[in-house]
Amino acid sequence: MMAGKYAGKVGKLHLSSKALHRFSVLGWTRALTIISRSRLRRYATWETTMTDSARKSATISPTAHYTGQVWLRNGLSDERLRTPQGSLLYRLLQPLMFASSTVGGPTLQDFLLARHELIDLRLAAAIDAGNITQVIEVAAGLSPRGLRFANKYGSRISYIEADLPGMAARKRNLLGATASPHHRIITINALADDGPDSLAALAATLNPTQGVAIVTEGLINYFDADNVTGMWRRFAGALHDFPQGLYLSDIHLSGVNSGLVTNAFRMMLSTFVRSRVHLHFDTAQDLKQQLLSTGFTSAAVHDPHDFAAQLESCKPRWAGLVRVIEARTG
């Protein structure tokens, strides 16, 4: 059914399955990159036709809209978090994802679902163990995690989504009044050392006798190394003020994102996000050493494939493109 649905669309792009197999990987890379640029131009053209109110949400990155749609289509999100931008981007990129999977290449969904559900799994484990009662999701975007965890745990946790003003306002408008008093959306600047919108200011409002988790998803690889290590120092510093501190994040390592196919996919991803994708560390050991140097007392780097028995989303081959950080203080 899937093949039938998208084969025609791929054919319109002059990229039939048979033709794709005749491409070298380099040729396939160039084709995907050219097509992704073309489809994003269509998205940009569509943006210019929007109303003023709708255009304001276009300042939110394409990845936030697209990822929100992936979560929604896989039963992980709330219908209120559907956006017209996300729906359009999903439709524009789906033939491209089908083309990639046809030749055995990765798709965005392969690692978007794996990272999301693995972070969920590790966060739930920490809450269930009684170590964490307060959660800050930095740059939450259209993530449904706050809604789901607030609904699941109720008064056992306080879930705070923290984002830049435009995204925070957009999400409040989408959700209206949240169903849980234990879930709120605030403004934060993760790059600020101090000030009213800093993580330090937010941390000062939390219960100092209870454990805190900080979550980032889809954030780290879009910043350069200096900004990343600066964020980690701020995260570790804030968590040290609590009896238990946990940091969960996805990250891509250069050592597992090398080779022609993955390099091709990274080029396409950079085109899609309109920004460079940074691969700061080669190995998990390099990453762990950096996390420890920024103030965390322990660090683990999880391969989604190690959780395939627990999570269906961690089974696909290309789920292994991503890793999940679990770093602790206290």
Kindly describe this structure.
The chain has 330 residues and is α/β, with parallel strands linked by helices. 49% of the residues lie in helices and 12% in strands. The chain has 13 helices and 7 strands. A 7-stranded mixed β-sheet has the order 3-2-1-4-5-7-6, sandwiched between helices. α5 packs across α6 (84-102). The model is unreliable at 1-32 and 42-59 (pLDDT under 50).
What is the element layout, followed by pairings?
Blueprint: H1 2-12, H2 17-22, H3 25-47, H4 52-56, H5 62-73, H6 84-102, H7 108-128, E1 134-138, H8 145-153, E2 158-163, H9 165-175, E3 183-187, H10 199-203, E4 212-216, H11 225-239, E5 245-251, H12 260-273, H13 284-293, E6 298-302, E7 323-329
Parallel strand pairs: 1-2, 1-4, 2-3, 4-5
Antiparallel strand pairs: 5-7, 6-7
Strand segment count: 7
Structural class: alpha/beta
N- and C-termini, Cα separation: 51 Å
Helix count from the secondary structure assignment: 13
Helix content: 40-55%
Largest sheet strand order: 3-2-1-4-5-7-6
Large-scale geometry: globular
Order of helices and strands: HHHHHHHEHEHEHEHEHHEE
Proportion in β-strands: 5-15%
Give the uncertain stretches in residue-range form.
1-32, 42-59
Rg, Cα atoms, Å: 20 Å
